[in-house]
Amino acid sequence: MDAATAKTIIDIHCHTAGIGAGNSGCFISPAMRRSWRYKVFLKAFGVTERELLQEGDGLVMRRTSESLAASQRVSAAVILAVDGAVDDKGELDRARTEMFIPNEFVAAETARHPNLLFGASVNPLRRDALERLEQAAADGAVLLKWLPSIQHFDPVDRRLTPFYLKLKELGLPLLTHTGSEKSFTKAQNHLADPERLRLPLSLGVTVIAAHAASNGRNQGESNHRRFLRLCGEFPNLYADISALTQLNRLTHLQRLLKHPELFGRLLYGTDMPIPNTAAVTPFGFPNRLSPRRILEISRIANPWDQDVALKEALGVPEQIFSNAQSIIRL
Question: pTM for the full model?
Answer without folding.
Answer: 0.95
